[in-house]
Structures are given as structure tokens and as C-alpha cells.
From TrEMBL:
Molecular function per GO: ATP binding; ATP hydrolysis activity
Organism of origin: Romboutsia ilealis
Classification via InterPro entries: AAA+_ATPase, ABC_transporter-like_ATP-bd, P-loop_NTPase
Any matching Pfam family: ABC_tran
Recorded coiled-coil stretches: none
Protein keywords: ATP-binding, Nucleotide-binding
Keyword Ion transport attributed: no
Superkingdom field: Bacteria
Domain ABC transporter: 5-227
Protein name: ABC transporter, ATP-binding protein
Nucleotide-binding in keyword set: yes
Length: 232
């Protein structure tokens, strides 16, 4: 099986509003993939379908050949667009919680990142700035040894200096045979770490391919291409 994600003819609507239109998409193993699209194009919906948080009206979603389930949750490390962690918990509590809950959680790796990003493990999430909370969540997600990492808008609130560190951390910490799917609007920041990109518009995949090949073929950066494609 060469694909970690297979989307087969998936249709999803909210009430009568079509959000994902009979989509077919394969995401190969061992790649860093940017999922890019304007506001409301369906990125988070697609990610929730992959995670089994939403069910398609029709079609199939397969993760490593199986439908989203408890089994797939073991191999998927997911950073949602909104936090699900309890505010009253200290960073140390959350790290211990993840360590107990996930067999593939690497506490040493997490502590290295905590130190490098100057996070106080005795601080409660409640008193942290938005960017620091994002850093904590990213540390949790990237400290697992998963087959598929899905990051929904991971670094929007993080300052530019820390972003560089985080992107470096993402590349160094993820294992070569894993796949990383990142939905973001910070295209210029991530295009150099991505192998492939996917452009989504109104629930349709309008472009998918290798970053270097697209840049060469179009003679422009992915960021410039996106701005041109989705000009308001
Ligand atoms: N729970 C919901 N009920 C009804 N409509 C929804 C719901 N969630 C999302 N939508 C609609 O589905 C469409 C796709 O939303 P989605 O959040 O997937 O887009 P997105 O590409 O992630 O956007 P953004 O870049 O702004 O985060 C939007 O038109 C949105 O209004």
C-alpha cells in the first residue's frame, strides 16, 4: 500500500450545503504535504473526514487501507484547529496524560522541545498566550511516532522566530516513512518544507503535485501561484 490516505468519491454536505464534492484524492506515504485553499474551501472538513470526526454522505475514506476507527487513531497524530485540552491542566500534567495514553509517545523528545521553546512545564494552559498554547499542542502531536500527522493551522499564532524553529522541529522529528499533512495559510513559510501541495477550492481538488515541479512548470512560488489563483 503506497498511499496512507485514500479518498474515494467522497461527498459531504452540511444540511443541503455541499462542502466536499465527489472528491478523489490519494496521499502517498513518506511525504510532507501542504493542504492549501481559501477560507471556507473545505480543508478542515476534509481533515475531520480523514480523522473520522465527520462521516461522508457517500464515498469512502481509508487510512492505511482501513476506515477511520479506533485502530486508525493509533496511527494518526492530529492537531485540531481548536484546542481540546483542559485549560486548568499544567503542561506537565498534559505531557504525562499523553505519555500514559499513547504507546508511541516519546517523553524525551517532548521534553527537548519544551526546553528549546522555553516552556514552563508548571504553567497552566489557562494563563498561557495563544502562541505558547499552540507550541504546547504541536509538541504533543509531534512527540508521537505516528504514521500520519495531520496539522490543522498549526502555527498561525506563533511568532516568526519560533515558527522557524517549529518548522525545523517538524522536519527533524517526523520519521521518513511517515506522512505529514499540514493545512495552513502561511504558504511562504511552509512551501520549502513540503514535498507536495494540494490546492482545494469549493470542496474540489484543483491541483496536486510536487512542489519543485510545480514551481518549475509555473515559473513562480507556490505562494505566488496561490495568490494568483485565488485573487479576490
Ligand atoms: N458545522 C458546520 N455546519 C454548517 N456548515 C459548516 C460547518 N462547518 C463548516 N461549514 C461550512 O463548510 C465550508 C467549509 O468549511 P471548512 O471549515 O472546512 O473550511 P476551511 O477551508 O477549513 O476554512 P478556513 O481556511 O477558514 O479554516 C464553509 O462554507 C463553512 O461555512
Amino acid at each position: 500500500m503506497d498511499n496512507i490516505v485514500e479518498i474515494k468519491n467522497v461527498y459531504k454536505s452540511y444540511s443541503k450545503k455541499e462542502v466536499i464534492s465527489n472528491m478523489n484524492l490519494n496521499i502517498p506515504k513518506g511525504k510532507i504535504v501542504g493542504l492549501l485553499g481559501p477560507n471556507g474551501s473545505g480543508k478542515s472538513t476534509l481533515i475531520k473526514l480523514i480523522n473520522g470526526l465527520l462521516q461522508p454522505n457517500s464515498g469512502d475514506v481509508l487510512i492505511d487501507g482501513i476506515k477511520p476507527s479506533i485502530e486508525t487513531k493509533r496511527i494518526v497524530s492530529y492537531l485540531p484547529e481548536r484546542t481540546y485540552l483542559n485549560d486548568w491542566m499544567k503542561v506537565s500534567d498534559i505531557l504525562n496524560f499523553f505519555n500514559d495514553f499513547y504507546d508511541d509517545f516519546n517523553m524525551d523528545k517532548a521534553m527537548d522541545m519544551v526546553k528549546s521553546l522555553n516552556i514552563n512545564i508548571n504553567e497552566k494552559l489557562k494563563t498561557m498566550s495563544k502562541g505558547t498554547k499552540e507550541k504546547v499542542q504541536l509538541i504533543l502531536v509531534m512527540s508521537r511516532h505516528a504514521k500520519l500527522y495531520i496539522l490543522d493551522e498549526p502555527i498561525g499564532g506563533v511568532d516568526p522566530a519560533a515558527r522557524t524553529y517549529i518548522l525545523k522541529t517538524i522536519i527533524t522529528n517526523y520519521c521518513e516513512d511517515s506522512t505529514l499533512l499540514i493545512a495552513t495559510h502561511l504558504i511562504s513559510e511552509i512551501e520549502n518544507i513540503c514535498d507536495d501541495v494540494i490546492f482545494i477550492s469549493n470542496g474540489n481538488i484543483i491541483l496536486q503535485g510536487n512542489v519543485d515541479e510545480i514551481r518549475e512548470e509555473k515559473g513562480k512560488s507556490i505562494d505566488a501561484l496561490f495568490r494568483e489563483e485565488f485573487k479576490c
